[in-house]
Write a structure and sequence with these properties.
five-stranded antiparallel β-sheet; alpha+beta; 231 residues
Length: 231
C-alpha cells in the first residue's frame, strides 16, 4: 500500500496535506502536532495507530508528516519526508513563516500526491533521495571548508600586515642605529683630535722649557721683552 497520507505544517498550522484514501489520518495527525507542540528541537519521530505508522520530521519549526502501512518500513517514509521538506522550503522560502492555514494546499497537495505515489511504487526513490541528502551534506562540508580557508586567509593577511609592521620597525631601528653610530664616531673623532692637540702642546712646552731654561720660560720671555723694547 505504501504511503497514503502526507502533511506539511508550521507548528500547529497545517499548510498543505493530501490523503490517498478516506481515513482519519488528518485527525490523528493533528493530535500528533498537538502532542509535539512543546518540542523545540529538531527530531524524527514515529507514532503507531492501528496497523499504520506515522513518520514525523521536525526541522526549524516546520513539521512534515506521513502515514504508511507497517509493511512499508521506515527508510522509505523518512526519505519521502526529507524530499518533501526540501521541495517545500525551496518552493515557498520565507513565506512559510507567515502563511495562513492551507495557504499552500491547492498547489502543494498535488506535489504530495505525486511524491507519495513515486516513493510508494518506485524502489529507486529512496536511493535517489539518499544521494540528494549525501550531496547536500557534502555541499555543507565544502562551504564549511571554504569558510575555514577564508578565515585562514584573514589570519594570513593579518600575519603579513604584522610582518610588514615589524619590518618597518626594523628599518626604523636600523636608521636610528646608524644615526647613533655616526654621532658616536664624530664624538670619538673630536675626542681624539683634542687629545692629539693636547699631546702636541705638551711636547712643544717641554721643548720650550728645555731651551728657555725653566718651567716659566723666563730666558725666552726676557729675550722677547728686550727685543720688543729695542724696537
Amino acid at each position: 500500500m505504501g504511503i497514503i497520507y502526507g502533511m506539511v505544517a508550521r507548528e500547529q498550522v497545517v499548510l498543505a496535506e493530501f490523503s490517498a484514501t478516506q481515513t482519519n489520518a488528518s485527525t490523528v495527525a493533528r493530535q500528533i502536532l498537538d502532542k509535539m507542540k512543546e518540542a523545540k528541537n529538531d527530531s524524527n519521530s514515529l507514532f503507531s495507530h492501528d496497523s499504520y505508522i506515522f513518520h514525523v520530521k521536525r526541522t526549524d519549526g516546520l513539521t512534515v508528516l506521513s502515514m504508511a502501512d507497517d509493511a512499508t518500513g521506515r527508510r522509505i517514509p523518512f526519505a519521502f519526508l526529507e524530499d518533501i521538506h526540501q521541495k517545500f522550503v525551496k518552493t515557498y522560502g520565507r513565506a512559510i513563516h507567515s502563511a495562513s492555514a492551507y495557504a499552500m494546499n491547492d498547489e502543494f497537495s498535488r506535489i504530495l500526491s505525486q511524491q507519495m505515489a513515486d516513493f510508494s511504487n518506485n524502489q529507486n526513490a529512496e536511493k535517489l533521495n539518499r544521494l540528494k541528502v549525501e550531496m547536500s551534506q557534502v555541499k555543507g562540508v565544502m562551504i564549511d571548508n571554504i569558510e575555514k580557508v577564508l578565515e585562514r586567509g584573514d589570519r594570513l593577511a593579518l600575519l603579513v600586515e604584522k610582518t610588514r609592521a615589524m619590518q618597518g620597525d626594523t628599518l626604523g631601528f636600523k636608521r636610528q642605529a646608524r644615526r647613533y653610530k655616526s654621532v658616536m664616531w664624530w664624538r670619538d673623532c673630536k675626542f681624539t683630535a683634542t687629545l692629539i692637540l693636547m699631546v702636541l702642546l705638551t711636547i712643544v712646552y717641554v721643548v720650550l722649557t728645555f731651551f728657555c731654561h725653566g718651567l716659566f720660560l723666563s730666558s725666552c720671555l726676557r729675550k722677547i721683552w728686550i727685543g720688543s723694547k729695542g724696537v
